[in-house]
Amino acid sequence: MSFEFGPAHVRRIAPYQAGRPISEVAREFGLDEANIVKLASNENPLGMPESSRRAIEAALADLGRYPDSNGFELKAAIAAKYDVPMDWITLGNGSNDILELAAHALVAPGESIVYSQYSFAVYPLATQGVGARGIEVPSLNYGHDIPAMGRAIEADTKLVFIANPNNPTGTFVPAAELEAFLAQVPPQVVVVLDEAYNEYLAAELQYDSIAWVRRYPNLLVSRTMSKAYGLAGLRVGFAIAQPQLTDLLNRVRQPFNVNSLAQAAAIAALNDREFLERSAQINAAGYRQLTAGFDALGLEYVPSYGNFVLVKVGADDGAGSRVNLALLKQGIIVRPVNGYGLPQWLRISIGLPEENAAFLTALKQALAA
Ligand SMILES: *Cc1c(COP(=O)(O)O)cnc(C)c1O
């Protein structure tokens, strides 16, 4: 073939590697789906809230119609919860959509986007997707080096992505450090503060990023219903920013990007405080369980503020793949992070107590193999 389809910036994109579905692993390794434990995609091990299930059942009758393009009721629920006007909210098909919308709305081809090494894979993907130039700032202790990110901003930088807590490493940037960063970022550079794991933060670490949105017209806070709210399969996320940014994001948004069932389920989940509390409790207990297991096995891990832990499973660059395969054979799905440049590590989503226990038993075997 003497030509190639598509522009160079698209051909250069390495596809996102998702956690492997249970059905696929069952087929490949000849296992029973019922015995497989998936701790690979930072999903809520409780599944979806019962309140969302009921809301979905009630919404089924209207599926012949298009969803509400403006998501009035969901935005009203978000506006009430965070005490912001409705025109400060953008709805996304997952918060992944929000990240893409921000890149599309705010960055032209050839301009630059700043993000950290070992941060969320979607940041470089969104950057490449719009033909922008990624400026990857070396990580500090597996987390964001916020002062270095400030220094990395160039004249053509339009966007900075920060995940707090970070995925896949689980690190956390304290509020004071973020606040200092926001105060010194040039006002024409938009900061996307991706708080996908915010609901898991202990009370003493919680901070009021919405107050910062009121102060900084160049700040966009991104939230998801996929993690603590247990709705990953429905795809709902949202952004809170001042109207100038919200308006731009909505111009590039697909009119019906959040489906009717997702909108109904999200409203129910947002108001389900009991479910959220239970999720955080199970997560905290699971974190103690997993890290005690790692300590017993003498494994290094990165202290995590999310619903997952990054653990070092060997000293050679084949370790992650090797231990991952040994776990898969035992019906345990976790996430290799070679694609992030962390080939000696695996990322383990925190599961139910029995799932964590099954994983630790299998891990011990895998390390001995
Ligand atoms: C999981 C995750 C998201 C996106 O999740 P959605 O399901 O698309 O809402 C965004 N940012 C980070 C850091 C994540 O880990």
UniProtKB/TrEMBL annotation:
<dbReference type="InterPro" id="IPR015422">
    <property type="entry name" value="PyrdxlP-dep_Trfase_small"/>
</dbReference>
<dbReference type="GO" id="GO:0030170">
    <property type="term" value="F:pyridoxal phosphate binding"/>
</dbReference>
<keyword id="KW-0032">Aminotransferase</keyword>
<dbReference type="Pfam" id="PF00155">
    <property type="entry name" value="Aminotran_1_2"/>
</dbReference>
<keyword id="KW-0368">Histidine biosynthesis</keyword>
<dbReference type="GO" id="GO:0000105">
    <property type="term" value="P:L-histidine biosynthetic process"/>
</dbReference>
<keyword id="KW-0028">Amino-acid biosynthesis</keyword>
<protein>
    <recommendedName>
        <fullName>Histidinol-phosphate aminotransferase</fullName>
        <ecNumber>2.6.1.9</ecNumber>
    </recommendedName>
</protein>
<feature type="domain" description="Aminotransferase class I/classII large">
    <location>
        <begin position="35"/>
        <end position="357"/>
    </location>
</feature>
<dbReference type="InterPro" id="IPR015424">
    <property type="entry name" value="PyrdxlP-dep_Trfase"/>
</dbReference>
<comment type="subunit">
    <text>Homodimer.</text>
</comment>
<comment type="similarity">
    <text>Belongs to the class-II pyridoxal-phosphate-dependent aminotransferase family. Histidinol-phosphate aminotransferase subfamily.</text>
</comment>
<keyword id="KW-0663">Pyridoxal phosphate</keyword>
<comment type="pathway">
    <text>Amino-acid biosynthesis; L-histidine biosynthesis; L-histidine from 5-phospho-alpha-D-ribose 1-diphosphate: step 7/9.</text>
</comment>
<dbReference type="InterPro" id="IPR005861">
    <property type="entry name" value="HisP_aminotrans"/>
</dbReference>
<dbReference type="GO" id="GO:0004400">
    <property type="term" value="F:histidinol-phosphate transaminase activity"/>
</dbReference>
<feature type="modified residue" description="N6-(pyridoxal phosphate)lysine">
    <location>
        <position position="227"/>
    </location>
</feature>
<dbReference type="InterPro" id="IPR001917">
    <property type="entry name" value="Aminotrans_II_pyridoxalP_BS"/>
</dbReference>
<dbReference type="InterPro" id="IPR004839">
    <property type="entry name" value="Aminotransferase_I/II_large"/>
</dbReference>
<dbReference type="InterPro" id="IPR015421">
    <property type="entry name" value="PyrdxlP-dep_Trfase_major"/>
</dbReference>
<dbReference type="InterPro" id="IPR050106">
    <property type="entry name" value="HistidinolP_aminotransfase"/>
</dbReference>
<keyword id="KW-0808">Transferase</keyword>
